[in-house]
User: What shape does this take?
Amino acid sequence: MAATINKNGALAGKVAVVTGASRGIGEAIALRYAQEGAKVVVSARTVEEGDHILPGSINSVVKRIKDAGGEAAAVKADLGNAADRENLIKETEKAFGPVDILVNNAAVTYFIPVEDFPEKRLKLMFEVQVFGPMHLAQLTIPKMRERGGGWILNISSHAALHPQLDAAGRGGTVYGMCKAALERFTTGLAAELHQDKIGVNVISPGLIATPGVVHHGLINESNKDRAVPVENMAEACLRLVYGDPAELSGRITYADVMLKEFNLKPAELIA
Assistant: This one.
C-alpha cells in the first residue's frame, strides 16, 4: 500500500519548519511530518533541481507533498544569514501561522584538519549549525509560549562524541565541535523551557546514505553494512515532536534508540 497523507495524524493542524530540507534527512523529515497532517515549510538554499551539484530542491519536496494531498510551502533561506532566518519565520507565519515545530537540520561542513582550517569557514559552520538554531529558537519561542507549548528538534551527529586517540582523522574536528555545542544548547534550552511545555530534543541519525554523506565519501567498505534507511531517522524525528513535553524533553538520543524504546516501525515515505 502506497504512503499517503493522514490529515488527522499525530501532527494534524501543526505548523512545522524544517531547515536543510531540500534532500537527505531534512527532506525525509518534511515528508514524514506532512504524512501526519502537519503544514510543513520546507527550507534550504536549493530552490530548483540543478541549482546544486547534489540532487534535490525545496520546490520538488513541496511538490511531492502537495501531489499527495498535503500542505507545504517552500522558503529559500541561507541559515548563515540572520535576515534569511528572520524572513523564514515571517514567511511561515504568513503562509500557515505561528510555528509549532522547529527542526534545525541545516548544515554546512568542511572536512579540513585544524592546522589548516580557515577562520572564515570556521565562523560559517558555527553560524549555520550553532547560532542559526539558537536564533530560530529565539524567533519562535515567544509564540510557542503564548499558545501553551511547542517542540524544537535539533539534528546532531555521532561526530559530537569524543574520538579515540587512535581513530583515523578525517578533518572532522570542527564539525564535531559544532554538534557538541548544539547538544549542550539543546539540554540547556530544554531546562529553560520545561515549565512552558516546550519540548527540546537533539537526535543523531547513525549512518545514512544521504547525498551529502555519499558526496563526502563517508560510506566505505568498512562501514557500509551499518548504513540504515533514512526512513528510520524520519520516524524517530516524528516521535520527538508530539506527546507530553514534560516526559519527552532534554534528550540527547539516536534514531536506533528511539525506534527500540517506542517500538516504532518506520513508515514508507510518500513518492
